[in-house]
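Dear H.,

Thanks for agreeing to be a second pair of eyes. The structure we're designing against is below in C-alpha cell form, covering all 428 positions.
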C-alpha cells in the first residue's frame, strides 16, 4: 500500500490544482465573452479528446511501461497548462488558446487514467480494492468541493496568474511523487497478449473481453445508463433549482451536496463495500435514482437539498464498488484496454446527455407544463406548472429510468452473480 499511498497523494494534489485552474479559466472565459455557449464549449473540449484517444490509451497502458505512460501524460497535461500561463503573462491569451490547451490537457489525462486504474490491482490487496478506489473518489470529491470555494477566494487575492502558478506547483509535486516509486508489471494471462498488433486491434481486445463475459458486459451497459442519467442531471440541475430559488441558496444546496459526496467517499474507503460488491452498486444506484425522482417532484428547497445530499452520497460508492469488480475480474495484462473502452463508452454517454438534455428540456418538456400546456391538467396538478416544471418532469423520468434499469439488472443472474461466476485475477 505504501506505493499506492505515494501515488495517491500526488494525484490528490494534481486534482486540486487542476480543479482550481479549470474553475479560474471558465470564469475568465465567461467574463471576457459574456457567452454561455463559449462557456459551455470548455466542457466539450474536456470530454471529446478523451473519447478520441481512448484506443491509444488502452494500447499504451497494456503494451508500454505504465509508470512511464503516467509520468509522460502528466508532463503533457502540465505543459498544456503552462502554455496558458505563458500566454497570459505576455498578454497574448485568447479564447481559442484556452480551448486548445484544455483539449490537449484532457487528452493527456485520458492517456494516463487506464494505466493508473490498471496499476491499482498490482499495488493493493484484492480485499482493499474498493477502499483504494474510494480514496481516489475522495480526491475527486475534495477537488469538486474545495475548488469553487477556494478558487473564488484565490481569484480575488492572487488573481488568475497566481492560480496558474499554484497549479504548476501541484503538477511538479505530483511528478516528484511518481518519480519516487517503481511499479510492478503484470504477468501475461491472455493468449492474445503475445501477439504484436495495431492500436485499433488492441482497442477491439477490450471490446471482445467484455462481450465474452456477459456479467461484465451488462455491468458496462448499466454503467452507461447511469452516466447518461448523471449527465442529464449535471446539465439541468442548475436551471431546475434556479426556477424556484436564488443563486445564494443554490450555492448552499450544492455545498451540502458536496459534503454528501465527501461522506460517501469516507464511508466506502473505510467500509470496503461488503463481500458482494455488486449489491453496493445496485443498492446505491437505486438510491441515486430515487433522489432524482424526489428532486423533480416539488419546488421545495429542503426536499431538493436532501435529495442532492444523498444522490452525491451514493455516487462514490457506486463508482468505487463497480471499479473494484472490473479490477478483480479482468485479466491484469488487458485491464488498461478494458478500462479505456469503458471510459470511451462513459464519455459517449455523457456527450449524448449533454447534447440532448437542453433540447429535450426547452423544446419538449417545458412546453408540456406551461400554464396552459398539454399536461397542465394532469401531471401539472401533481408537480405544478410554470418555469422549471418541465425539467422537473424530466428529472422524475430519468430517476425512474435509473431505478427500472437497476431492478432489471438485479433480476439478471449473469450480472447479479458476476462476482461468483468469474475468476479473480490475483496479482503475485
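And this is the sequence the design step returned. I haven't edited it by hand at all.
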Amino acid at each position: 500500500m505504501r506505493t499506492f499511498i505515494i501515488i495517491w497523494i500526488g494525484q490528490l494534489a494534481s486534482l486540486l490544482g487542476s480543479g482550481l485552474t479549470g474553475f479560474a479559466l471558465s470564469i475568465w472565459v465567461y467574463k471576457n465573452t459574456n457567452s454561455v455557449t463559449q462557456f459551455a464549449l470548455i466542457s466539450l473540449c474536456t470530454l471529446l479528446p478523451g473519447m478520441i484517444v481512448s484506443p491509444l490509451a488502452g494500447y499504451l497502458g497494456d503494451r508500454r511501461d505504465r509508470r512511464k505512460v503516467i509520468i509522460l501524460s502528466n508532463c503533457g497535461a502540465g505543459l498544456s497548462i503552462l502554455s496558458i500561463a505563458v500566454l497570459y503573462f505576455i498578454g497574448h491569451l485568447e479564447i481559442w488558446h484556452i480551448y486548445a490547451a484544455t483539449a490537449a490537457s484532457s487528452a493527456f489525462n485520458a492517456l494516463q487514467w487506464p494505466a493508473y486504474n490498471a496499476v491499482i490491482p498490482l499495488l493493493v490487496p484484492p480485499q482493499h480494492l474498493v477502499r483504494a478506489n474510494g480514496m481516489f473518489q475522495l480526491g475527486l470529491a475534495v477537488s469538486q468541493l474545495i475548488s469553487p470555494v477556494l478558487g473564488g477566494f484565490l481569484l480575488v487575492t492572487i488573481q488568475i496568474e497566481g492560480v496558474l502558478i499554484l497549479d504548476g506547483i501541484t503538477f511538479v509535486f505530483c511528478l516528484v511523487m511518481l518519480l519516487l516509486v517503481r511499479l510492478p508489471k503484470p504477468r501475461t494471462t491472455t493468449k492474445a497478449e503475445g501477439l504484436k498488433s495495431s492500436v485499433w486491434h488492441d482497442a477491439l481486445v477490450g471490446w471482445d473481453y467484455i462481450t465474452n463475459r456477459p456479467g461484465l458486459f451488462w455491468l458496462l451497459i448499466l454503467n452507461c445508463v447511469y452516466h447518461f442519467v448523471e449527465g442529464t442531471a449535471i446539465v439541468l440541475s442548475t436551471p431546475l433549482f434556479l426556477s424556484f430559488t436564488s443563486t445564494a441558496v443554490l450555492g448552499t444546496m450544492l455545498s451540502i451536496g458536496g459534503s454528501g459526496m465527501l461522506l460517501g467517499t469516507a464511508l466506502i474507503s473505510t467500509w470496503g463495500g461488503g463481500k458482494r460488491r455488486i449489491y453496493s452498486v445496485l443498492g446505491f444506484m437505486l438510491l441515486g435514482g430515487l433522489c432524482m425522482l424526489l428532486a423533480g417532484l416539488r419546488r421545495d428547497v429542503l426536499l431538493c437539498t436532501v435529495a442532492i445530499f444523498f444522490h452525491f452520497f451514493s455516487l462514490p460508492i457506486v463508482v468505487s464498488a463497480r471499479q473494484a469488480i472490473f479490477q478483480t475480474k479482468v485479466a491484469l495484462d488487458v485491464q488498461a484496454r478494458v478500462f479505456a473502452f469503458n471510459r470511451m463508452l462513459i464519455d459517449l454517454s455523457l456527450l449524448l446527455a449533454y447534447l440532448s438534455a437542453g433540447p429535450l428540456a426547452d423544446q419538449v418538456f417545458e412546453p408540456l407544463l406551461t400554464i396552459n400546456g398539454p399536461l397542465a391538467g394532469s401531471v401539472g396538478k401533481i408537480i405544478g406548472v410554470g418555469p422549471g416544471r418541465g425539467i422537473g418532469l424530466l428529472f422524475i423520468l430519468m430517476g425512474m429510468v435509473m431505478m427500472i434499469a437497476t431492478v432489471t439488472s438485479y433480476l439478471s443472474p449473469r450480472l447479479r452473480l458476476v462476482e461468483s461466476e468469474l475468476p479473480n485475477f490475483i496479482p503475485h
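Two observations from my side: The longest helix spans residues 335-368. The chain has a mean pLDDT of 82.

Warmly,
E.
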